[in-house]
Amino acid sequence: MFIINCPYCGERDQTEFSCGGEAHIERPKQPTELSDDQWAEYLFMRKNIKGIQFERWNHIHGCRKWFNVVRDTSNDKIHAVYKMGERPPIK
Amino acid sequence: MKNKYSIFSLIKNALSGHENWQRAWRDPEPKKEYDAIIIGGGGHGLATAYYLAKKHKMTNIAVVEKGWIGGGNTGRNTTIIRSNYLWDASAGLYDHALKIWEGLSQELNYNVMFSQRGVVNLAHNLQDVRDLKRRTHANRLNGIDAVWLNTEEVKKFCPIINTSPSIRYPVLGGTLQRRAGTARHDAVAWGYARGADKMGVDIIQNCEVKGIKRNNDTVEGIETTKGFIKTKKIGVVAAGHSSVIANMAGIRLPLESKPLQALVSEPVKPIIDTVVMSNAVHAYVSQSDKGELVIGAGTDSYVSYTQKGSHNIVEETLRAILELYPIFSRMKMLRQWGGIVDICPDASPIISKTQVKGLYFNCGWGTGGFKATPGSGDLFAHTIANDEPHKLNAAFNLNRFVSGDLVDEHGAAAVAH
What we know:
Helix content of chain A: under 10%
Mean pLDDT of chain A: 96
Radius of gyration of chain A: 14 Å
Distance between the termini of chain A: 25 Å
Largest interface: A-B, 26 and 26 residues
Largest sheet of chain A: 4 strands, antiparallel
Strand content of chain A: 35-45%
Structural class of chain A: mainly beta
Strand order of the largest sheet of chain B: 6-7-5-15-16-17-14-18
Order of helices and strands of chain A: EEEHEEE
Low-confidence stretches of chain A: none
Oligomer: heterodimer
Helix content of chain B: 25-40%
CATH architecture of chain A: 2-Layer Sandwich
Structural class of chain B: alpha/beta
């Protein structure tokens, strides 16, 4: 449980948001040319990092907009929030 | 077995003032090399070591654990055991475990307090009824005991449930597995540890794995806080931290690790003599031998390794518990805790070889691994010893995420899994 700083609405309780999982997973540009291994990679394989993770969140009980969050999964501290399409502010 | 526990050993030790009990397992320093190393000293890891030694005569092996044995999810679950899963592959896997549970205390010479008090899964809407009736039939076709109870029968089986039709999610029936029940989770870890140790397995606690050494596609050993240990076979049973170990070995897993919470109440006199679960309202409850209500809540929706979990998840569960059991409205909760569970996309575990020779993973048990502990250990030991899966865990390979042959158990895997 933590506070998320929605880039559109400001600081709100995490319960107002829904987590969309790992960010920056690119949708295949040529789905018909993907091998089974590449499909498995896209659909199922996840970094599941203990530490700094980049993830997508949706302010589902607010502005309903998607954005990205940089969070340390070992202590739930949020290091940065940035909009969709923007480059991550932290490496 | 040396130092066999019995009525005679109890009397003998009572006469000497209980000062001569031997420690149940040693506390050895790691050797330079082992034939196999199990990473993770929880129930599954210790069971794996036990069966490797017992059935496959691999006694030059070690279990390495970063904390103390049974201090992770083995000591954090709600101790429920059942095998009423939908698909044939799961039925085979979980019922294999249940059959071992039935004789486990005798086999280990250690009382794991296995109690077949029955588990009921409740239905609260018509789709629940259809799904659970289908599951009941599927279970019976697989030789697993299951019986459908209508609302009156649920009330008779567990009288404290509120079966009024006017509650928000009325009880429309449920499926009962009478052979299901609970066990003392710590005793499972301790019993397997004692059994494995007796056969020569080294159980190395407070030894964290820092790296996995690979020579191209073969494992060579592990780097730990107690130095490098050489081995040809590594079995990883690290639950919520499976992805962390996979990352050290340079392989990818389809897992997400999330906090799962549980809580217990103050102890009261016996009030509920079975286990009642409800997927639809996210609540399940049983009563421990000490008298505490043992309540399982759901998972958080995001990846986290914090072992705590959010307050709103607990609130949601207690709301459901109170509607189903108004009698508990003045109970006080004593303790709450979280454990990190590794969840697979199809809510089924992975017990599998990997593309790295000598590297095996047993993970993805998500919110419901405790019930499978003995079967999981037995089948994983078979997989490691023979470098091939047993027929009961063949379907639970890592390659199913490539082939698409998933074992979708979201319906039977229970709460928030």
